[in-house]
Amino acid sequence: MTLRKLALFCVLCCLPLTPLHAQLYAQLYSDTSTAVDAVADTADSPAAVDAKTAPAEVRFMNRPVATFRATISGTTAETRARRATELLQRLPRRELTLPIDILHVSIDNEPMAAIRLGDRLLFLLAPEDAAPGDKRDFDTQLIEVQAQLRAALTARNEFGRWP
């Protein structure tokens, strides 16, 4: 894996380029090459997840998709939401009907889920993104995000079509 591919992966996942993301890339694509060595030392990188940020909502086609509350590897919830929204807005119509997958991953032993549309990674969710007081387990929340994303993508696909 090249550093260029790793940088592209981080952009698609709405994350900064850090050694933690090299590990995630290797997990998602079963790539055991020198990805982790291609990026600078991990000692200076921030913690994988920090739950001390203000919530930021991802909305697409005037529908809620997900709410981010955690800072992941130094990327605030607001930045993650902005990047995810921009990525959703740039999706070509031919990709709107592709399947939505949930990939369970971990960064520094922190469980997370990558939401993927076809082969395109849209965004990451962490258990810390859950609303305070929400008693549902992480998988149930992921299924809800998947359903909300599908509804928003369907609305975008049907927008501007004759009945």
Write out key terms for the chains shown:
two-stranded antiparallel sheet, alpha+beta, three-stranded antiparallel β-sheet, 23% strand, 163 residues
What is the end-to-end distance? 46 Å
Rg over CA atoms, rounded to whole Å, is: 16 Å
Helix vs. strand class: alpha+beta
Largest sheet data: 3 strands, antiparallel
* Count of extended strands: 7
Average pLDDT rating:
79
In percent, how much strand structure appears in the residues?
Answer: 15-25%
Biggest sheet: strands side by side, in what order? Answer: 5-6-7
Q: Bin the helical content.
A: 25-40%
Please state the overall shape, judged from the principal axes of the Cα atoms.
globular
Q: H/E order of the elements?
A: HHHEEEEHEEEH
* Poorly predicted tracts of residues: 30-45
Description:
β6 and β7 form a beta hairpin. It contains five helices and seven strands. The chain is globular, with a radius of gyration of 16 Å. With 163 residues, it is of the alpha+beta class. The longest helix is centred in the C-terminal third of the chain and has 21 residues. About 10% of the residues have low confidence.
Topology, element by element:
Layout: H1 3-12, H2 19-29, H3 35-38, E1 49-50, E2 56-60, E3 63-68, E4 71-72, H4 77-89, E5 100-107, E6 110-117, E7 120-125, H5 138-158
Antiparallel strand pairs: 1-4, 2-3, 5-6, 6-7
Q: Could you write a compact summary of the structure shown?
A:
Helices cover 36% and strands 23% of the residues.
